[in-house]
Amino acid sequence: MQVPIKRAIESVPGGMMVVPLLVGALIATFFPDTPKFFGSFTGALFSGALTILAVFYVCMGASIDFRATPYIVKKGGTLLIVKVGVAVVLGLIFGSILGETPVAAGMFAGVSTLAIVAAMNDTNGGLYMALMGQYGRPRDVGAYTVMSLESGPFLTMITLGVAGLSAFPWQTLVGAILPLVVGMIIGNLDREMRDFLSRAVPVMIPFFAFALGAGLDLSKVWQAGLLGLGMGVAVVVVTGIPLFLADRITGGNGVAGVAAASTAGNAAAVPAIVAAANPAYADAARPATILVAACVVVTAILVPIVTAWTARVVGRDVEEPAEENNVASAGKMTPAARSVVTEASH
Questions:
Q1: Counting runs of H as helices and runs of E as strands, what totals does the chain give?
Q2: Whether the Cβ atoms of residue 211 and residue 278 lie closer than 8 Å to each other
Q3: Phi/psi at 337 (nearest 5 deg)?
Q4: Long-range CB contacts for residues 147-151, cutoff 8 Å, separation at least 24
Q5: Under 8 Å between Cβ of 342 and 207
Q6: Segment 63-120, tens digit of pLDDT
Q7: Which domains does the chain have, with CATH numbers?
């Protein structure tokens, strides 16, 4: 007897990402000691998000032709500027209204400029790359090598007017792009290796999603209440719309822009770091941490669904850039990479 598990999962918008992610989050929330209890390989499945992502990066890099490098810079730079630009505008607006302190009472108690900026300007890179592996062009994944500049408190501090109190370590940037570059070198040196490695990309998505979900605590949403839920939705809407439009203007179909409209997990640590650098934000740090953590959870669930819906609606209506068509016609795009583009149009 055959059970249509794969078909059932794929019937959910972004199912290969959303379903494993929710399973991991539910286990982490209600049975948090599961990885420690079983240990060994089972425990590794819960904590291996970075390792799986590193392998995912190498395999995806192998499917990218060197001729796509200008596209990666253009795409990543555009998404970076728009995402951070939205956070800067909101920082200026709410900074003039709230200053450094949070709202003290009422239904918006705990909201602060720090919370808003930290939630808005840092994209969940793993989520973006996994979604692009399923719904975007292979080289759209590489755009995160530029977008990784968002990571950490540096841009948040700049936005809040405390630039110079922290520095972005070059080792972190190099470490973020190195697996992709290695994969690109291997794939461009040997087309057979490109085809071999690129086949692993769709297979790793549910495993990465599960590990990502295992790091999310759904109780954070409960603690933050409707305010946290509303902020998470606001991140997707407020950053998603300009990112979608920017992606369309620069030749994309908008899917990559929507996939970038999330909050990174490490953004939850930013308020405390900012407060340590500038005591003026001490009162805002604790409620901001809870609200940003809620945004991480909400956007991790909502963005895959919205991305899947966007891919279905607009994926078929936008013509691919001429250079990508040339790559495909020249035999440079692997069957696995070509299938990713095809799936995005359905």
A1: 20, 0
A2: no
A3: -65, -40
A4: 147/76, 147/79, 147/80, 147/83, 147/123, 147/260, 148/172, 148/173, 148/176, 148/177, 149/80, 149/173, 150/80, 150/83, 150/84, 150/121, 150/122, 150/123, 150/264, 151/122, 151/125, 151/176, 151/264, 151/266
A5: no
A6: 777 776 787 788 888 998 999 899 888 888 888 888 888 888 777 888 888 899 989 9
A7: 19-31+50-341 (1.20.1530.20)
